[in-house]
Design brief:
There is one protein chain. Helix 1 runs antiparallel to helix 7 and helix 3 runs antiparallel to helix 8. The radius of gyration is 17 Å and the shape is globular. It is built from nine helices and no strands.
Length: 208
Amino acid sequence: MESFSLKTFLDLFIVIDPIGLAPIFITLAGSRPPEEQFGIVRQAILVSAGILLAFALGGNWLLATLGIGIEAFQIGTGILLFKIAVDMVFAQRERETEEEEQEAQAREDISVFPLAIPLIAGPGTLASILILQNESAVYVWGWLIVIAIALIVLLITYILLYFSVYLAKFLGKTGINVITRVLGLILSALATQYIADGVVVILKSVFK
């Protein structure tokens, strides 16, 4: 149970990457008064928590309704996470398009878009939540553990974004890039494992 809990925490922490979010948040909201920045962070975390909770509880039903097997979803998730990992390693992580970034700069409220979606509760995070929920089925109250750890990661994200100005000044651009690259390497290994596990299950069902 402890190993699964640790895996869940590391998986979600790496995918959400709250340290890497700090400079992005500063870019989007750095010119606003501190009180407004704190309100944006609080709203973004609440929205993200709602999205992750809904997907954790209803994601499997959605896949079943669409006729998508968990193995296929796992392989697709692995490919997506590997792409994110490569961007992290080369410090080129882009969670939004240029048009979305320009719109975000002009919007009065950036808490829902782009901060909550897709920066925090993005496709990689939602996919990871669903896979972890399926892996937790072997444990008693495993699904609740995944949700609880997801909320803990969101709390850490809230704290780091709350103090993002000081964090960015302390780490500097080089420090943030170093941490992001290390997390990217770990994420690439995790993504490869997702793909391998999905392929193995499919091959076993074909050749059994």
